[in-house]
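Components:
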Amino acid sequence: MTALNSQKRFQQLTHPWAGRLYSVALRQTSDSHIAEDWVQETLLRAWRDFGQLTEEITIYAWLLKVLDHVIADDVRREKRRHQLAPIITVEDKYLIEHPCSAPGPFDETLKDQTNSQLMDAIQNLPDEFRRVVLLRDLEGLSYLEVAYILDIPKGTVMSRLSRGRRILASALLKLENKEQKIDRSSNIASKK
Amino acid sequence: MMNDQFDNTKEKWTELHESLQDLLAGYADNELDEQDTLIIEAHLSGCENCRNDLARQNALSERLEIIPPARITSGLQKRIDNMQLEESPVPDMHLETSLAKVLIPFKSWFKNISRQPVFGASGWAFALIFAVVISLPTSWQTQRSQIPMINDALAEYHKMNSIAFPVSNKNTSIKAPVNLPEGRTLATWATSIAGEPAQAFAIRSGRNIIFQYQINETVLFRNPEVRQAIADFGNYKLRSNEVDVLALPLTDSGVLVVGPAKSLPAVEKIEF
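Structure:
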């Protein structure tokens, strides 16, 4: 295979995924230019490491792994690494006491949230939980694929996902509380 | 004495309750092995807090799944198209073999499935496959879809089917991905499915108008339910308000076939 052919093959295999990579990148920064830079850097690194592709790896999972490293090098600095992740149990105050935490009302709460509100809540998750939630719940990847991309055991994917969704649920309930308070105060203000 | 025993049991229960909370996502996503599933189910039956947490996890997961992906910007597309790659970073031979072996698992599952009738053309294997094929028509899903690509295809089908679309002869060079019996392409147009570009075809087949959407593989395999159905049966089917949707993998893309209920040909009769 000539150099030109291998370039062409690389482009054929990777370019169809550029849109999805951009979408995943944009979920981790609000700046579209940064997301674009990450995608370009991902493709350049992917080309550099093209020989490491093996038959066990799917192109998309492999590209996501490269993207994850690109983002890590760019933004995941020391402060994030030392950020203490909160441990929320099923006995968390909001999850137990909030009137909307029961299954039916919680579904309604979720329906009321716009996509961008949900994305904001995901952005605010501690890094290790955010990445797992993004890959599993938004990208629809299997636990094995997520484990491969993030270089963590499958059991860790499961525990981070359990905790990440719990933190997210609690955060959304808090948000619901705030919105209700704002609604109430604006009602009072309009009555006055 | 009794009190000690009670405290001990309670302590053990609390310990188990805390450790099982990390498995709840796995249970919600059907990623647990049989033994853990049994333990979780036994615990769930007596623990309301965990049951509620599980319900919230399911709800969250379903809600997040339908957030559409962002579209690539034209600026980035240009940057990628113009990207200068340096010389091949790997020896040619290695590249060729590694590339030849790059597998997209879904594709290989599908290939394995479609090969089965060849290898098992006699005896029990054949009977088994035959039984699966026979059972296929009953596997139509009837619930409302939460899958963006299906929703987009259905929405456009309803919209376009209620207006008269022009009969175009200009695009006869673009062939619909699936050949339908007595099928004639009436029109084809570019559209968007689940946030990605797609090509739509309106085809008259007998008395029915059937739509086909050629979509890219990413969109087709995005939803785990669809992925599993394609792995198990080679296709995904859904019936919604008297409209049938059939999702099929092609060589390097996918197709959604949409038409009035019961108007779509049996999968085994479809020619690609």
